[in-house]
Amino acid sequence: MQAAVVDRYGAPDVVRVADVPRPTARADEVLVRVKAVAVTSADARIRGARFPKGFAPFARLAFGVFRPRRRILGSSFSGEVEEAGSRVRGFTPGDQVCGMTGLRLGAHAEYVSVPVKKIAPKPPDVSHDDAAGLLFGGTTALYFLRDKASVTPGMSVLVNGASGAIGTNAVQLAKHFGATVTGVTSGSNADLVTKLGADQVIDYTHVDLGDITEKFDAVLDTVGNLSIASGRRLLNPRGVLLLAVAGLSETLRARGNVRTGTTPERVEDFRLLLQLLANGDISVVHDQVDGLAGVVEAYRTVDSGHKVGNLVIRL
């Protein structure tokens, strides 16, 4: 099979498309023929060894000290079950599924083997492109807004980085939960963020976050350019600061009204997000790249910092 292979850390052009052995499904796994897979900021951080400040030594131990231990990146995918392991129940060849591979990665390929506990059925009304583009940003937004901040009707939420993979989902989910939403993005993306449900849009190219006097019940930073001090200045007395991107220092100091953490990949969350998408309660913002040959250009777009929504490779 063909896969996007990373033999060393570096710029996007270290990625190459190569023929590699097709994986096989173990007893508790399914082998999925990939139809669409996201290229995320997490993939780009691993490929470039650009880990959050302070985490580099630990990340190198996890992903490879001198070169990537997992040569095929990619986590959020959608596709069709090719074969099911002997202990798998509920999924058979031909089933349309989507999921996330976690630290195993491996989804930037024509086939990927995945533990059955990491996949969910893809609703018929949801495209493979949308399913693959939904899960990375959607699960993160859901985790922080619902689990870390308990967003409920009447709350006010600020989303910093409202046009990215996490931000586009966060704006919609916060609105779905009944909050009043303010999105921070560039002026060129203001219309998009408004269409997603933001009640107010702040253009960061004209307004510095430090100059905002309004206070919020929850501030979600998806970019990593808010310090704990600057984020707290935006909070109501009982507000919470949510750091989806945090360095080691911020992680160690996150307590009280500052919350961070690693998003769990739970099938029940996949199912909820997919149902919201199938019902039309949320939508997926993404660009498509046809074929693995476009993976280098996809990485260049992610590295530019100007990616809007998600990038999905269609196989």
Automatic annotation (TrEMBL):
Check the record and name the InterPro entries matching this protein. Answer: ADH-like_N (IPR013154), Chloroplast_QOR (IPR052733), ER (IPR020843), GroES-like_sf (IPR011032), NAD(P)-bd_dom_sf (IPR036291)
Q: Which Gene3D superfamilies match?
A: Medium-chain alcohol dehydrogenases, catalytic domain, NAD(P)-binding Rossmann-like Domain
The Enoyl reductase (ER) domain covers: 10-313
Matches recorded under SUPFAM superfamilies: GroES-like, NAD(P)-binding Rossmann-fold domains
A single Gene Ontology MF term assigned here is: oxidoreductase activity
Task: Note the Pfam families from the entry.
Answer: ADH_N, ADH_zinc_N_2
Q: Which PANTHER family match?
A: ZINC-TYPE ALCOHOL DEHYDROGENASE-LIKE PROTEIN C16A3.02C
The protein here is known as NAD(P)-dependent alcohol dehydrogenase
Q: Which organism is it from?
A: Phytoactinopolyspora halotolerans
